[in-house]
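Below is how a single chain appears once it has passed through the pipeline. First comes the sequence as given, then the structure the pipeline wrote out for it. We keep one example in the README because the format questions we get most often are answered faster by looking than by reading.
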Amino acid sequence: MPAAPDALKHRRLADRLDGLAGMAWAYSVLHFSGMSARSAGIYFTPAEHLITAGNGYSADSGVFNYYLKGTRKPVSGPRGKNGVDLIAAVGREEYGSRANSWLEHPLWKIFSRNVSQEYLALFCAPEKIPLHIVPYLFAKDLSAIPVERAPRILRARDFLYVCAFYRAFHAGGYPSTLVPLIRYLVPQVCSLDPIFRYIHAPFMRMLEDNYFKTDEQVLDAWPVEEPPCFDPKYSEDMFENGPCPLNGTGKAKHVCERCEIGGGLSASEFDWDT
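Resulting structure:
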């Protein structure tokens, strides 16, 4: 089950972004390893620091549930009473670089208060922008575009260009028509990346609270779809096996039958590299 919209309790934008980073990182570890939060906590705790519970099983520190709540993000180096460097430990796994990339993801940099124009320019340069989204970036009235011509993005990275353009307009104090475009594209990004799927609701709440509420309110240009159901194996409780909330099958694959995305996803399909 994805994180709730109000999962982040921080007031400061920087703290919310750190919470999102930690949340995405922890979920990424669980998603790619196939472990539950408890199993991951035990797996990444050195054997000499494991605690044997009364039933004979090792007790974990609860560290992954801590980060899944969006409290903050982990930092490099030995931390905690056991002196474990979680980032380094995850980095040694096959999926480690992909999981750790969420700690310094471009989305957090784009929406930070002190983002530089030079950084935004990396995404706004004409030769960088995917041609299929250019018409929507500069449209004066998105609602004038019929729904059958509404945008479809092909890779998660396409979303970065839209966000960077919005942020550049916002930082310059210029009116932007990109709020409904961002809202419309979020379900598509969810269908391309299971990690973003988990954090999308608190991510959007962060945007609504810190950016969208200061813009002129614009009605959605097209009907906004419901994000597809990812990771049915993690759909109930906190990452314990459970049925998919849409179809109740409990099948451990990326997308359930009710969602018209189909099949598993390859790494390249949710690649954010630019």
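Confidence is low (pLDDT under 50) at residues 229-270.

See the next section for the split statistics.
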